[in-house]
Each structure stands twice: as structure tokens, then as C-alpha cells.
DNA sequence: CATTCACACTAGCGCTTGCTTGGTTACTCA
DNA sequence: TGAGTAACCAAGCAAGCGCTAGTGTGAATG
């Protein structure tokens, strides 16, 4: 088995795994299916990953790291205006959601299949991401842009955004930025 | 095997199955686990259900039928005021979501595991339910209570509501009605 | 009293699963 | 040129899977 490093080969395999996990679900995806998709034999898979669990963890970690990076970058770029920051977070969220769609669908819907160790590690990453959101929501509340309970508002907004993976069609007429603006418009006091 | 009727025994077994499906996920729940939870041997399970798929379909059908019934009842009770109807739908949604929590979690997150035949049948049920929502949202838009695109608004609202199953704690200080009112307040123009 | 029925049992078939083993190839770099 | 290593393969194991076949039983029905 490889060490836990991030060889380019492993990264490519992780991408393919994410796609299969979305298509079939984690449990129904067999190591033989994964291997075939990767053009290798099933035994060879365990040269790159300790076990099937580790593949799942790699997929989710990849997606969450990207989300965190993009969100931080967006916030840095957009100054300190609360409305601009709110809009930027919504846009960044949808941008990463559809850029790394497979990884995020796995993260959102196969989370429970992680073993406790991996789950604990990835929870911290997720918390770091959500903390960004809470800060932005807080600032928007203090500025009077939106009303309500900070906890509930952030949960509702994240729920509405995450649920888009269930219905949004990237080939349709609406861009992710359209969605973000519509959502922000929907919740802002006028 | 039993006919597809709704014997009380079968209904009770369906309830237990829903609980296990939530705990373990559909794929990881074995017929032996189901049988043990039900206090019978695995072979006996197939007296009540044709196969494992049929158990999943029964769980989801049960939940969706209840949601539809409760929503219709709530709308009938609350008159024709657009705001009251909007609030009633949100309350009804959360009420059924937590009254039949297991069934709904399965319906929301194990949907993909249905075979095509069952999926088509249950999609119609789901569409009937969502049609109620679109009507109510439409009326609220026409009354100027909320702003935005009817399609997007209903998707965002349903997303925010459905996502509550991931974080809402029924033993906490907030009632489902609190959540409904907060959400309605959040999206209403002021 | 005979028959039927719902419900449960035991036993196990045929197949798939995640993962291991022992060995081979292809490439890098001293 | 030869040692080291990353990547791979063929073969297979032990466990577990959904599901079936055939049987037993106590209560209701004729």
C-alpha cells in the first residue's frame, strides 16, 4: 500500500471514485467496479488506498478542501461590505458545488458511511467551512440586511443551497450566479 | 408471499424497517437484520414482502401518503388567505417530517435505491405533493407577499425545509412551528 | 371434524463482497 | 548497468448476501 500521500495517480483515482459513488452510491459501488473504471484490476486498488473506506474519505476531503479554499478566496476579494460578502459566499458555495459536483454530492449524502475516525477528522474541516458562513450571516444581521435568528437563518440558507444539487440543471438557462442572487434577494429585507 | 395488502402486521414491520434504514442505510441493512429487529427469522420476512425492494417502497409510500394527507387537511382548515396558507404548508411539512421522521429520511436520502417501476409510481405521489406547494407559492407571489421566480422560490423553500432533518433536534427548545414561522418570516417582503 | 389460512421455522444454494497474497513489469536514478 | 520502487496482475479466501424450498403450527372456517 501507498503511504497516505497525494500522488497525482491517487488524485485521478479519487476523481473517478467520486463519479461512481454518485452514480451508484457508496455501498453499491464494489471495488471491482472502481477498478474497472480506473482501468486496473481490483487487487491493484489496494496499492493506492488502504481500504474502501479510505477512498470515500479521500473523495470527501478533496471536495471540502476545495470549498474552503474557494470561499476564503472569494471573501478576501470582495471587501468588507456585508451584502457583498453574503452574495460572495452564496456564489462561492454554488460555484464549488457544481465545479466539484461529484465530490460534494458524496460529501452531502454519503457522510454517514464514514467510519468514526475519518468522520471526526472531516467534521473539523466542515466546521471550519460553516464558521465562515456564520460570520457572514452575523454581519448581515448586524447590518440589518436580513432578519431572524442567526442559527436558523444560516441553516435555512445552507439547506436551500445544498438542496440545489437535487434539481439544478447546469445545462439550463440559469447560471449558478443567478441562483445565488435570487436566494440573496429572497431573504433580504427590502 | 402475502398479497400487497396493508395488514396491520405489515404496517408494523414497515415502521421497524424505516428505523433500520435510517440507522444503517438501505444497502447496509440486511434482511437478517430486519428479521431480527422484527423478532422473526430472515426467511419469514418474505411472507410479508416480495423482496427487499418492496420493503423500501412500502416505507417511502407510507411517508409520502401521510405528508399528502396532512398537507391537504391543513390547507382545507386555514381558509384562503395567502399568508395563512403559506404558513400552514410550512408547518404541515415540518409536522409530518418529524412525526414520520424515519420514513421521510428514507424517502429523501434512499430514493435512488428504488427500482424503476417503484420509482415511477412514487414519483407521481411526490409530484402531487409538490404541486400543492407550487400553488401556495404562486398565490403568495401574486399577493406580493414574497418576491422572485416561482420555480426557484419553491425549490429554495423545500430545500431549506427538507434539510432540517439533518440538524433539527426535537428535544431542543424550538418547536417545528417555530421553524416554520421563522422561515416564512425570513422570505416575506416587509 | 376436516380443511384452510396466516405466519413462522430450518436449511442451505448460488453468488458477490472486501481484501490478501505472491509474484511480475516498467521506470528512475546512482 | 543494476538496485530500488511504484504500479500492476492472477488467483483466491472467508464471510456475508438475497432469496428459495419445504415443513410445522395454532386459530379460524366450512
TrEMBL record, chains A, B:
Give a yes or no for keyword 4Fe-4S in this entry: no
Q: Name one GO molecular function term.
A: DNA-binding transcription factor activity
Question: Which residues, as ranges, make up the DNA-binding region of this protein?
Answer: 30-49
Q: Is Nucleotide-binding a UniProt keyword of this protein? A: no
Q: Where is the HTH tetR-type domain?
A: 7-67
Q: Which domain of life is it from?
A: Bacteria
Q: Which UniProt keywords apply?
A: Coiled coil, DNA-binding
Protein's name according to its UniProt entry: TetR family transcriptional regulator
Taxonomic source organism: Vreelandella songnenensis
